[in-house]
Design brief:
Blueprint lengths: L13 E9 L9 E6 L2 H12 L3 E6 L22 E12 L5 E18 L4 E7 L9 H17 L11 H7 L3 H12 L3 H8 L4 H53 L3 H13 L5 H16 L5 H15 L12 H11 L4 H16 L7 E5 L6 H12 L3 E5 L6 H5 L12 H9 L5 E5 L12 H9 L7 E2 L6 E2 L5 E6 L7 H5 L1 E5 L5 H19 L11 H11 L6 H21 L7 H8 L17 E8 L2 E13 L4 E4 L4 H16 L10 H4 E6 L13 H13 L7 E3 L2 E2 L5 E2 L4 H10 L4 E5 L3 H5 L9 E5 L2 H8 L4
Parallel strand pairs: 1-3, 7-12, 7-13, 8-9, 9-12, 16-17, 18-21, 21-22
Antiparallel strand pairs: 1-6, 2-5, 3-4, 4-5, 5-6, 10-11, 14-15, 15-17, 19-20
Helix pairs in contact: 2-3, 2-6, 4-6, 7-8, 8-9, 10-11, 10-12, 17-18, 17-19, 21-23, 23-26
The protein binds adenosine-5'-diphosphate and magnesium ion.
Length: about 775
């Protein structure tokens, strides 16, 4: 580039100058442009300028070259912008056809005041525009240089606007105006945009516009690049897939298993099934779609799985029920020890079902603590009826789709648990055991219990729609049985449908029988041993029950037998000798006894009473504590008591105050002391009214200063008249008292019939029935 900086023309000078209109290009100062001129008027102007100071004015046209199709069409004066660049002709070449080629370098911007065309010349009166004021200091310049250079370096290599060393050149230009002009001359801006920049007054405005433009170029070339590579990739990928697929087909042909033949298998199988009409239609539809789909595509896999599910349902398969109740009784007795009342109720239920088989009978719910045989009873019922059996575990199911099925749109979709269970059972009328129905959850993915209700409801389950199967399925022949630990957490509408049979838990004697007759023989076989090898004496079984477990059911006990059988097997393999189990060897293998009896008996204390409580895991002994301290008569309740329990505590306090004189309590104590009632094991929420008499005993104990007899445990609701009202969970509570070594238990008189209904009462416990709380106090309050 030739040095031209100082060749500017004097400021504010009005002068006449020849005009060269430029089409499609806006010339900036410092820019060098070659121009081809054909118009005689313009050529004359150029020649005139050559004789003087070689200066001409280049003015861009508003219209683009596309609009100057016809050659020789003169450019109208109105079509010229009024700001242009004065340039110096560097070289001039005359062409043979009369035209000229000129090389011009821009020098300075100028504004046109008037254009004066004559017949021979196109001249204009102009005023030069001073170079930009220096609004761009060094720092700013550096900033712009840096920005421009980084933007240019971001351009993808496919971009042809800039040469590789462009950035280097730019960084060496010191004058911001020159820099901007230099960059502009490379940008290839459309003429109207370039003109806009030419007319700007501040250099920073121009530089900002340049940055903006560069950014646009970069983002559009990035997009281009992306499209280019992605089409390239997709072409590669589909070619690859096609190639692999062809190979696969060839291999399959060689092996003689092509997918058409398994469609034929499907059709054959389908023809022999007793589909419902709807299922038949769906099946045919899927088969015809499958035929049209390429055998190894994803859709085909999804369809094939669906067809397989349709084929695997037990369409039309119904077993005949065993209607003989004596046989049913025999099966139940063989499977389970004891549980007489429960078996009776099951047999009653079955009898009704046999006589009136219209499905409207309620659903059985076996409720009780873990390990008391609910699940296994369900199996026995199926056996007793001669039906197939499947279990649906709904504990922890949060997603409605687990019940209703997933939509087939995604890979790995499955039918809901009910359809799965029917497939497993293999008949349309199995016994389906919905296990742990109280543990069903709900979440943002819908409410599974609503779907469950629909499946269980005889009004609706004739046509239960599973999303995966895509057809309605008849569940009305199914006998549903449910199990639960805790009835209170079952959603109300579900609970209303159910006939609850409560299983309480076993006494030590019952556990011994269950262990001897059912648990041990099964576990011995499961451990690969035989009855002749190993035996457990009565003493050992009792030791395991009382010393190593504290549970309502027998699950922990059966784990202990498993452990001991495994120890036996190992010893037998290592030494070819068995183990004879004694208290000592058991302690060697299982560790010392974990349960220490008679924990609570012994010291009689003021303010502490043994209460009996029911929990989903069986009965519990819960101590209620009361304490007096100087104060103003406040009542403090702690230990996570529920509302009902808090109310019974208040009722007990009121009763105590109104009967204070009968027990020689000074009524001033109720205003001079605060009463604190606490139930330990604070992390467990406690509720229910059955602690009424227990709370009252503790309260009377602190106000009278008389200790409570710790051999007693009690349960009973209290009203303000001092009557003791009946409670639930009698057997569980009795068992808990027994386990804790308590020898005397107080129950409400109205529960006497429940106690009489228990098959085998735990031994060594005296049961006292009471009507009024004064009887309770006379039993438990020890003399001072
Ligand atoms: N009365 C009983 N007679 C025979 N076996 C029993 C009895 N009660 C429980 N069992 C056995 O105890 C184990 C645990 O019972 P399970 O049905 O799993 O209890 P749950 O479902 O109530 O938690 C099973 O092996 C079961 O056969
Ligand atoms: Mg169970």
């Amino acid at each position: 580039m030739k040095k031209q900086e100082n060749k500017t023309i004097g400021m504010a000078e009005h002068r006449k100058i020849a005009v060269i209109p430029t089409i499609d290009v806006v010339v900036f100062p410092h820019m060098v442009v070659p121009l081809l001129v054909l118009d005689t008027k313009i050529i004359a102007g150029i020649q005139q300028a050559m004789k003087e100071d070689k200066k001409v004015l280049m003015l861009a046209t508003k219209t683009t070259s596309n609009n100057y199709e016809e050659e020789g069409e003169p450019i109208s004066i109105d079509d010229l912008y009024h700001v242009g660049t004065v340039g110096e002709i560097i070289r001039l070449m005359e062409l043979s056809d009369g035209g000229v080629k000129v090389l011009i370098q821009g020098v300075q911007k100028a504004i046109v005041h008037r254009i004066t065309p004559t017949d021979e010349l196109l001249n204009a009166t102009i005023e030069l525009i001073a170079p930009f004021e220096e609004d761009c200091n060094n720092e700013k310049r550096e900033y712009y240089t840096q920005q421009i250079c980084t933007l240019i370096s971001k351009l993808p290599p496919s971009n042809t606007l800039f040469s590789p060393d462009f950035a280097t050149i730019v960084s060496q230009i010191e004058h911001p105006q020159k820099m901007s002009d230099f960059v502009l001359s490379h940008l290839n801006l459309p003429a109207h945009q370039a003109q806009e920049l030419l007319e700007k007054h501040l250099i920073t405005e121009v530089l900002d516009a340049i940055l903006l433009h560069l950014e646009r170029i970069i983002s559009s070339s990035e997009v281009e690049e992306k499209i280019r590579t992605s089409t390239r990739e997709s072409i590669n990928k589909s070619q690859r897939e096609y190639y692999l697929r062809e190979q696969l087909r060839a291999i399959q042909k060689e092996l003689g298993d092509d997918s058409d033949s398994d469609i034929e298998d499907f059709e054959q199988k389908g023809a022999s099934l007793a589909f419902s009409d709807e299922a038949r239609t769906e099946f045919n539809r899927q088969i015809s779609r499958l035929k049209k789909t390429s055998g190894d595509s994803l859709e085909a896999t999804v369809m094939r799985n669906h067809v397989e599910w349709l084929l695997s349902m037990p369409w039309g398969i119904v077993t005949n029920d065993n209607n003989d109740i004596t046989v049913a009784k025999k099966v139940l007795d063989e499977g389970h020890f004891g549980l007489n009342e429960i078996k009776e109720r099951i047999l009653d239920y079955l009898s009704v079902k046999y006589l009136k088989d219209d499905c409207s009978s309620p659903i059985l719910c076996l409720a009780g603590p873990p390990g008391v045989g609910k699940t296994s009873l369900g199996k026995s019922i199926a056996q007793a009826m001669g039906r197939s059996f499947a279990r649906i575990a709904v504990g922890g199911v949060h997603d409605e789709a687990e019940v209703r099925g997933h939509r087939r749109t995604y890979v790995g979709a499955l039918p809901g648990r009910f359809v799965q269970a029917i497939k497993k059972a293999g008949t349309l009328n199995p016994v389906l055991l919905i296990d742990e129905i109280d543990k069903i959850g709900s979440s943002q993915k819908g409410d599974p219990s609503a779907a469950l209700l629909e499946a269980l409801d005889p009004e609706q389950n004739k046509a239960f729609y599973d999303n995966y199967l895509g057809v309605h399925f008849d569940f009305s022949k199914v006998l549903f049985i449910t199990t639960a630990n805790d009835l209170s957490t079952i959603p109300g509408p579900l609970r209303d449908r159910m006939e609850v049979i409560q299983l309480a838990g076993y006494t030590k004697e019952e556990k011994m029988e269950i262990a001897r007759r059912h648990l041990i023989p099964g576990i011995i076989v499961d451990s690969g041993l035989s009855k002749t090898d190993i035996s457990f004496s009565k003493d050992i079984i009792e030791e395991l029950i009382t010393g190593y477990t504290r549970e309502a059911g027998v699950r922990g006990l059966s784990k202990l037998f498993q452990k001991l059988c495994a120890k036996y097997a190992r010893t037998y393999i290592e030494t070819k000798k068995g183990i004879s189990f004694t208290k000592k060897t058991v302690a060697e293998h299982l560790g010392p006894r974990r349960v220490i009896d008679s924990l609570r008996v012994g010291v009689h204390k003021v303010g502490i009473t043994n209460g009996l409580a029911w929990t989903p895991f069986g009965g519990e002994v819960m101590q209620m504590e009361a304490l007096l301290m100087p104060g103003t008569g406040k009542l403090i309740l702690t230990g996570q008591l529920g509302d009902v329990m808090k109310e019974s505590a208040r009722a007990a306090v009121s009763y105590a105050r109104s009967h204070a004189h009968e027990f020689g309590i000074d009524s001033k104590m109720f205003v001079e002391y605060d009463l604190h009632i606490h139930v330990p094991a604070g992390a467990i929420p406690k509720d229910g009214p059955s602690a009424g008499i227990t709370l009252l005993s503790s309260i009377f104990s602190v106000y009278t200063g008389r200790a409570i007899n710790s051999e007693f445990a009690m349960t009973g609701e209290l009203n303000l008249q001092g009557n003791v009202l009946p409670i639930g969970g009698v057997k569980e509570k009795l068992l808990a008292a027994k386990q804790h070594g308590l020898t005397r238990v107080i129950f409400p008189k109205q529960n006497e019939k429940d106690v009489k209904g228990i098959d085998t009462l735990p031994d060594g416990i005296k049961i006292l029935f009471v009507d009024n709380v004064k009887e309770v106090l006379s039993y438990v309050l020890l003399p001072k």
